[in-house]
Write a structure and sequence with these properties.
four-stranded antiparallel β-sheet, binds adenosine-5'-diphosphate, 310 residues, alpha/beta, binds magnesium ion
Amino acid sequence: MIKIKNLHKQYNDIVAIKNISFEVQEGDILGLLGPNGAGKSTTISILGGIIQNYRGEVEAFGKNLSKNKKEIKRKIGVVPQDIIIFHDLTARENLEYFGSLYGLKGKELKKHVDETLAFIGLEKVAKRLPKTFSGGMKRRLNIGCAIVHEPKLIILDEPTVGIDAQSRNHILESIRLLHKRGATIIYTSHYMEEIESICDRILIIDKGEIIEQGTTEELLDQYNQNVCYRFTLNKVGNKALVSDLKKKELVESCFCQEENIEIVCKDAGCALQEIIETIEKNGFRYHTINSKKNNLEDIFLQLTGRTLRD
Ligand SMILES: Nc1ncnc2c1ncn2[C@@H]1O[C@H](COP(=O)(O)OP(=O)(O)O)[C@@H](O)[C@H]1O
Ligand SMILES: [Mg+2]
């Protein structure tokens, strides 16, 4: 459905996307997972035809995107990261406006708008202005505007940021339902658990590059041999300890915050022995040890690091 080859986008000297290539098959729910600034919105804005100045090839529905923009746009619905709705139009009028942009009119437009209002759970407030809505309701209306023309491909850019739990759940359920009805989905988020729960294939991107990809199971399998140990030490950990631990062959990563130290390593048994010896050699004792298998969040942090992103 989508073929992207060597896509590259630069804003002056900031490289937002570095020659990335990937494909989306019909029926996929593809997750684009990445920290802030990874390049998710830029990728989506290119697919949605919002950014037109880029390098590389983008094919959608078998055709070149930039040469067949109008035709392709009708088959794609983009839910942008920042909510775009008209505040002086009612919920219904917003949907009517976006529906008419895609060529719907008359009875057909009304049918689509009615169905969409029901789908996003806003039929009862259809006549109200969005300024009276909660964040979650605005977001649902925003999603409605993107799907009112029944696109084959729906792209959502962090649609659950900053909204209440009920709206969030409603949105995730709606995405599953849209997929069941035949839509292909691209879903971006920095929430690992959302991606894990709804996506069947994942691209992890960071600093404009794809750093890992596969099905959710593949990624978990691949990193599952890793075990994460958490120790509570008898005093605040120091750099020497972290550096000694990192030197161990079986240790993949090590992160220390005050008395808590988290060590991810390749194998269980013998690695634990070595870790304990290293801790004691550095003059520490420990109160507790916990171990757990990697989940997607651990994998994400191991791959992208823990440095805070703007
Ligand atoms: N309009 C813009 N002008 C300049 N730099 C931008 C612009 N939009 C995004 N960027 C930069 O491009 C990079 C990727 O941003 P973005 O695609 O928004 O990432 P994400 O959606 O993953 O958070 C970031 O470094 C960001 O600061
Ligand atoms: Mg973004």
